[in-house]
Every structure is written in C-alpha cells, then in structure tokens.
Amino acid sequence: MDDRAQTDLRDALSFLLDHRVSLDFALRVFDTPRQDVWTPTREELVAGGVIGK
Description:
With 53 residues, the chain is an all-alpha fold.
C-alpha cells in the first residue's frame, strides 16, 4: 500500500471513530472486499454505533 492509500485509510478510520462508530464495525467496512457488497443489518448498525436504538 502506498503512502497516499495509507493516509486515506487512516483518515477514513479516524473519521468513523471520531463519530463513535465502533472499531470492530469500522474494520469490517475496510475488510470487506470491493467485489462483495456488505449490507449491515439494523442490529449491526446499532451495535456498531452507526445509528441509535
């Protein structure tokens, strides 16, 4: 991974964490291969801190 890609990834991860998205959820976002589509369930979104109950 080049420096620019690392910087972009770090910035995106920092943004999610600053907005109280859980680390596990944020890492899953970046761990999902491009060719796959991950559509988190409502329960995953709540558990990940993306949306409220």
